[in-house]
Amino acid sequence: MNIRINKIITGLLFCLAFNLLQAQQNNDSQKCRYTKTNYGYLMVLREGDNVLAEIEKLAREQKIPSANFTGIGFAQDATFGFYDFGEKKFHPKTFNKVEMGSITGSIAWSENKPSIHMHGVATDDKFDAYGGHILALKVGTGSMEIYITVNKDKLERKIEQPLNANVLQLPCLK
């Protein structure tokens, strides 16, 4: 009889733990990712969030004409790219479990979709620093804060030759 009661109690505890875990995961996925500020938006991203995708999503949802941003936080994966002008492509290098000491970038538009240009500096547990153009960035343990300053004018990016680079286009002043 005691073995059966123990199995029932163990089963109930397992079900309770599973339901609590599910509730926590649902709560995490429903947490607010950004809020409006006097200058634009403040994003707080959490473990596993794709930073570039979340900024693109915000730009689309809020119809941001253009913006610049800065940020800090812990990254699970940070992929930097060094542009080879001869080959006209980025050579990527990924760093895991790094602190993003600085993130900076801009939001513009290209072919009716957000175009994010991001650079940053990451440090590892030995305080060695790596930096440059960010191709991919995923939030690690903790969070990442991104402060977005919105500009009133819509800006576009276009591929310019001969470098095949996606360049921000500025309106000429009259």
TrEMBL record:
Q: Which Pfam families match?
A: PCC
- Annotated PANTHER family: DNA-BINDING PROTEIN (PTHR34988:SF1), PROTEIN, PUTATIVE-RELATED (PTHR34988)
Which InterPro entries does the record match to this protein?
PPC_dom
Which keywords accompany this UniProt record?
Answer: Signal
Q: Where is the PPC domain?
A: 35-171
Residue stretches in coiled coil: none
Span of the signal peptide = 1-23
Q: What name goes with this protein? A: DUF296 domain-containing protein
